[in-house]
Amino acid sequence: MKSILVDFDLLTGLSDERESVQRRLSDMDGMYADKDAYDAMIVRDDTLVYEFFDMGLPETEGGIAFGTSMTYPGKVGSEFFMTKGHFHSILDTAEVYYCLRGKGIMLMEDSEGNWEARELEPGLAVYVPEGYAHRSINTSPDDTLVTFYAFRADAGHDYGTIETKGFRKIVVEKDGIAQVIDNPKWKE
């Protein structure tokens, strides 16, 4: 393995060297609490909700995977656009996110029911502890949430648990501010 040099724009998170992985509204079916609002939106437009750049490093023990993630502004009903969220396949893996642009919340929870919601804004980094599922949520009405992330390269991703159960909490706009509330669709 040799060193690599990768470019990405600090404001947009975009890279000229790599193709992003895109998640559209249709990829988020079942992730939002308000099914009626989701169904109405998907009929109108299959909006781009978020995308990320995995820098393509080998998934080897001892390596560090990194990239950028861009979550776009928008809501389904009153619930803000978000990433799907995931646990790592190697559960004792931590991850770091550094906010480059926008405002948002990193929502985290473990399998025991412990959860945290940390606000993100440019210049703030959040350490996601081992064993915690996590998702980025864009709470800005008109700006993209851009983060740089890093984690152990061989950790893998478990999206299935979140797709099946959801998160215990969701982030909605209420009275003009972002609020964390119980997820009415969460399955034990």
Structural features, described:
The chain has 188 residues and is mainly β. The protein has one domain: Sandwich (Jelly Rolls), CATH 2.60.120.10. The chain has 2 helices and 13 strands, in the order E-H-E-E-E-E-E-E-E-E-E-E-H-E-E. It has helices at 35-44, 160-165; strands at 21-24, 48-54, 64-71, 75-76, 79-80, 95-101, 104-109, 115-120, 125-128, 133-138, 145-152, 169-174, 177-182. The strands form 4 sheets. A 6-stranded antiparallel beta sheet has the order 1-2-3-11-6-9, with no helix packed on it. Strands 8-7-10 form a 3-stranded antiparallel beta sheet, with no helix packed on it. Strands 4-5 form a two-stranded antiparallel ribbon. Strand 12 and strand 13 (177-182) form a beta hairpin. It is globular and about 50 Å long. The mean pLDDT is 92.
Quickly list its features.
38% strand, 3-stranded antiparallel β-sheet, 188 residues, 2 helices, single chain
> Measured on Cα atoms, how large is the radius of gyration?
16 Å
Low-confidence stretches: none
CATH architecture tag:
Sandwich
What is the H/E string? EHEEEEEEEEEEHEE
Summarize the structure.
With 188 residues, the chain is mainly β. The protein is built from two helices and 13 strands; from the N terminus they run E-H-E-E-E-E-E-E-E-E-E-E-H-E-E. The protein has one domain: Jelly Rolls (Sandwich).
